[in-house]
Amino acid sequence: MLKKEFYKFLLVIVVLLVGLNLINTNDNRPNKIDQVLHEIHQNYVDSIDINSLVESTIHQTLTNLDPHSIYMNTEEVNYSMAEMEGSFEGIGVEFSIHRDTIIIINVIPRGPSEKKGLKAGDRIIFIDDELVAGIGITNQDVIKKLRGKGGTLVTVGIKNKKEETIRLVNLRRDKIPISSLDVAYEISPHIGYIKLNRFSATTYKEFKQELELLLNEKKIENLILDLRGNTGGYLDQAIKILNEFFTKGELLVYTKGQARKEKKY
After folding, report:
1. Do the beta carbons of residue 134 and residue 101 sit within 8 Å?
2. Cα–Cα distance for residue pair 192/186, rounded to 1 Å
């Protein structure tokens, strides 16, 4: 035990010495992290997952910047890109985790879950015989378990207020289309209303189609474009929509950064 504590104490000294040695080498800032990680790998008393340590370090670094800067690993990027491209493969539900329980908040029309009778408010207790309630499950854990290659099977245990027992439902994953346009209708005489929840790869196409229907069938003269709760997305889609409202040549938006030149659209 004393030997173990000695090595931990030695590691602290080594890391401190490395840090002090590197304080004045500002020209090689990226090497500081590499060198400290190398010392941990070589001298730490227990085994350690360096990749996990690097991931958590990156997360913490971006947390110190601002609420809009986040780090996503490869798996998270793939999930996000699938949604932004307008579809993903899964069971066709949107969910929320409340008090450690997965609650279905929306069932996507014509998806596998709707076909099997799942409804908003249903609670998912089991996924493939594994208990998922009351265990501290995260959103990413749920996505990993429910999404998958189209055609594959997943069994979910469902409980709702009307049933005392847990109902097992077999679902075959399928391609689930995601609409970025919630509603489009004539809210008042000659006034159209369109609500967009994101700017995905298909948003402009969805918007243009509904706008033309409102113009041709309802003869609207004004339009309310509702962006409340919009989570953002692709800039080019937002610009295409803006072009429907402004004349050619007007500045719509520009981007600029500390190390990036100003770009006008």
Report:
1. yes
2. 4
